[in-house]
Design goal:
CATH superfamily of the largest domain: Type I PLP-dependent aspartate aminotransferase-like (Major domain)
Structural class: alpha/beta
Order of helices and strands: HHEHHEHEHEHEHEEHEHHHEEHEEHEH
Number of strands: 13
Helix content: 40-55%
Distance between the termini: 45 Å
Number of domains: 2
Shape: globular
CATH topology of the largest domain: Aspartate Aminotransferase, domain 2
Number of helices: 15
Length: about 400
C-alpha cells in the first residue's frame, strides 16, 4: 500500500456513516418501520420561497456560477454582522465575519490557524465527534474535560488541564450531543479563563436558533474586546434546512480571518454561491417562520421529556436543540446497545462511544452508558412511538 498519514489512520470512521452500515441489508416491517434518529439534520426541504430565490439565482444571476470572495459574499457578511449585533447586544463588524462551506469547515479553518501537531485543545465530554476527528488528523491532542450528570463543564477543572501546549478551549452550546445549554455566566467564566491564559475560546453555536430562551444565549459579544479571545461558529443548515448547500460562518478578529482566508482558499476557494443566496434570503425573509420552527423543536423536546418520564429504567441526562442524551439501563456498552435497538426496536441512534473515550481509552464510563437521540428528526407522534418501542425492552 502507498504511504498513509498515521494521523488519518488513528482517528475513527465517520460515526453517522458507520451507523448507516448497521442497517444495510435489513428489512423493516410496515407495521414498525425504521425510525432513524441518528443524524442531526432536517429531513424536509427549505421553505418554498427560499427554494424559489435560489432557483431564480441559478436561472438569472450569472455571478451565482462564478467564484466569489474567499471569505464570503459581502452582503451576507454584513447581514450577519447587523443581525448578530442586535441579537447579542454587541458590536460586530462585517470584517469580523467570514462565510464557510458549513460549520465543520468553520471549525477546521479556525483550528488550523490556532494549533499545530503536538499542541493541546481542551474539549468537554461528551465531545462532538467531528471536532475530535479533526484534532486527531492534525496531530493535536484533545485534553478531555469530564462532566457530571448535569453535563456542564467546570471552568476550574478546565484550568487544571492547561499546560504550556494548550492553545484553545472548544465549547458547543446548545450542546451536540448532550442537548444542554450553557448558561451565560458559565460561558463568561470560560472566556475569562481563556483570556487569562492567552487561549482562544471557540464556541460552536450551530443550534442557537433553537435555544429555549428568547434572550441572547450569552453576553460575550457585548465585551468591546471580544475578538481578542472569543471565536463564534455558526451554521445555516439547521435554521433554513440548507444542509446540502453547506453554509456556515465564523466571527473572529479581522487578523484571525486573514489567516483563515489562506486555509479556505486552498480547500474550497469560496463558499457555495447558491447556498449563500439562500442563507441571505432566509435571514431577510424568514424571521417569523424560523421562530415557529424553534417553537416546534421546543415542543418536541418537551415531548421527549414527558416520554422518558414514563421510562423509569432510562435516565434523561440532557435535552435541548436537536438532542436527547440518555443513560440506558443495559449491562452492555452503548455501541452494543445501539445495534441491538436496530434489531429489537427498529430504531437507529448513536452510542455514547462515538462521543467520548471508553474505559479502555481512559474514560470514566459515561460513553458506554449513554445514547444520543436526534429527536428533531421525528414529529411528536413519532416521539410517542419511540417511547412505545423502548418500554418493553429490559436489561
Amino acid at each position: 500500500m502507498t504511504p498513509l498519514n498515521p494521523n488519518m489512520k488513528a482517528t475513527f470512521a465517520p460515526p453517522v456513516m458507520e451507523a448507516r452500515r448497521w442497517i444495510e441489508g435489513k428489512v423493516f416491517s410496515d407495521a414498525r418501520p425504521l425510525m432513524n434518529l441518528s443524524q442531526a439534520a432536517p429531513v424536509d426541504p427549505p421553505p418554498e420561497g427560499l427554494v424559489a430565490a435560489m432557483a431564480e439565482a441559478i436561472l438569472s444571476d450569472p455571478l451565482a456560477h462564478l467564484y466569489g470572495p474567499v471569505l464570503g459574499n459581502d452582503v451576507l457578511r454584513a447581514e450577519l454582522a447587523t443581525q448578530w449585533s442586535q441579537a447579542y447586544g454587541g458590536e460586530i463588524a462585517p470584517a469580523q465575519v467570514a462565510i464557510t462551506s458549513g460549520c465543520n469547515q468553520a471549525f477546521t479553518s479556525i483550528m488550523s490557524t490556532i494549533a499545530q501537531a503536538g499542541d493541546e485543545v481542551i474539549i468537554p465530554l461528551p465531545f462532538y465527534f467531528n471536532h475530535q476527528m479533526w484534532l486527531d488528523m492534525q496531530g493535536v491532542k484533545a485534553r478531555y474535560l469530564p462532566t457530571g450528570d448535569d453535563l456542564l463543564p467546570d471552568p476550574e477543572a478546565a484550568a487544571g488541564l492547561i499546560t504550556d501546549r494548550t492553545k484553545a478551549i472548544v465549547l458547543v452550546s446548545p450542546n451536540n450531543p448532550a442537548g444542554v445549554e450553557y448558561p451565560p455566566a458559565l460561558l463568561a467564566a470560560f472566556r475569562d479563563l481563556a483570556r487569562a491564559h492567552g487561549l482562544a475560546l471557540i464556541v460552536d453555536e450551530t443550534y442557537r436558533d433553537f435555544h429555549s430562551s428568547e434572550a441572547a444565549p450569552h453576553g460575550l459579544f457585548a465585551d468591546s474586546d471580544w475578538d481578542d479571545t472569543f471565536i463564534h461558529l455558526y451554521s445555516f443548515s439547521k435554521a433554513y434546512r440548507l444542509t446540502g448547500h453547506r453554509v456556515g460562518a465564523i466571527m473572529a478578529s479581522p487578523q484571525r480571518l486573514a489567516e483563515v482566508e489562506k486555509f479556505l482558499d486552498t480547500v474550497a476557494i469560496c463558499p457555495p454561491q447558491i447556498g449563500q443566496i439562500g442563507a441571505l434570503w432566509g435571514m431577510q425573509n424568514l424571521g417569523d417562520w424560523l421562530a415557529g420552527e424553534r417553537l416546534e423543536i421546543l415542543a418536541r423536546r418537551d415531548a421527549v421529556r414527558q416520554g422518558f418520564a414514563q421510562l423509569p429504567d432510562w435516565q434523561l441526562l440532557g435535552s435541548g436543540a436537536y438532542f436527547a442524551y440518555v443513560r440506558h439501563p443495559f449491562d452492555a456498552p452503548s455501541d452494543v446497545v445501539a445495534k441491538r435497538l436496530v434489531d429489537e426496536a427498529s430504531l437507529l441512534v448513536l452510542p455514547g462511544t462515538m462521543f467520548g473515550p471508553s474505559r479502555e481509552q481512559g474514560g470514566a464510563g459515561q460513553a458506554e452508558a449513554t445514547l444520543r437521540i436526534a429527536f428533531a428528526n421525528a414529529d411528536r407522534a413519532g416521539l410517542g412511538d419511540l417511547v412505545t418501542r423502548l418500554a418493553p425492552l429490559s436489561a
